[in-house]
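Section 5.1 Outputs to date
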Amino acid sequence: MAIHRPVVLIAGKLALLPTGDTLAAKVQEVDIVDMTAKDALLAGMVVFCNAGFQVMKAKADDDTKANVLGLAVAAAALDASVQVQTDGVLELADWTDAAGAAALVAGSDYFLDASAGLLTATIPATGNLVYVGRAIAPQKLEVSVQRPIKL
């Protein structure tokens, strides 16, 4: 079987990967979608997609609003464009608007709260259980949204 070398960019020109060289790159999956906000949103707030394909604040105690799409990457006004992160690591300098404290608790799991758009480290007792992600550092949440489980 023949070994083929990949085509790479060297000094701005396409070339075969030189013999003996290897490829090394940081791999990180981050999925972000551009949406329209139907609520005023703050960075880190949890959102769902409504029937009009716009995002609104998600709520654990409302079956329709518990189908989480992701988290707002930055603040957005009503009817403005907003980026929603659906996977990967979301880093915010201050999580107060979304989690009630400036820093997340590293190693803690975060869930959708019954308060619109908010995260909680406390597992809800009623409504819907929606896992949103795990804090991997005080300013970083590994977003991994799961389907709601009706409690």
